Fold:
Amino acid sequence: MQEQSYHHGNLRTALLEEAERSVIAHGAAALSLREIARAIGVSHTAPRRHFADRTALLDAVAQRGFDTLGLRLAEAISAAEPAFEARLRALAHTYVDFTEGRMPLVELMYASKHGSETMAAPAAARAAYAVPYAVIEEAARAGQLADHLGPQAAARLVFAAVHGLAVLLSTGMIASDDTPDVVNASVDGLLGGLSSTERRIARPSRARPE
Structure:
């Protein structure tokens, strides 16, 4: 057994990493604390040092997912040009990239998002989505959104479009050999609906953010 080789923090991280792999491969319903312990080479009681039960472990996996998503979105915005279009395009590409191959994890994240306020995932979800909301709110203050759209309505529209696109791509409902082009085309449509009339002008190059 490798149990003695894990320090306190390392065991928790190892459990989370293995649980995330299990969720992605088999879905949240199939997750077993005993199997997770066996996979990383510790006793079947070891997970309970950090997670009281299976639900607590799944909530922590969901929180980890939102933490990772929030970090990636923040990094994408930081690397993008300051214009709203460039930031929106960076957000869309980053979100679709994050969900690719991880849809069972994403489903767990959104199921956990509506859990008890004593759970960690809802707070992590709010922190993650504060990142793109700040971009949309800034565009609203600058008069870059259509008059009939406030920040909340615009944020709902963006999320519905980008998340819906990610689901369709991940399930093969949209088959494409060039996902970046599909994302760019969807962002073009979003910009047409979001932008104020005076800003509906020719678009610059739609290169995928690095």
Notes: The helical segments are 8-26, 33-40, 54-79, 84-99, 103-113, 121-141, 151-170, 179-194. The chain has eight helices and no strands. Residues 54-79 form the longest helix (26 residues). Confidence is low (pLDDT under 50) at residues 197-205.
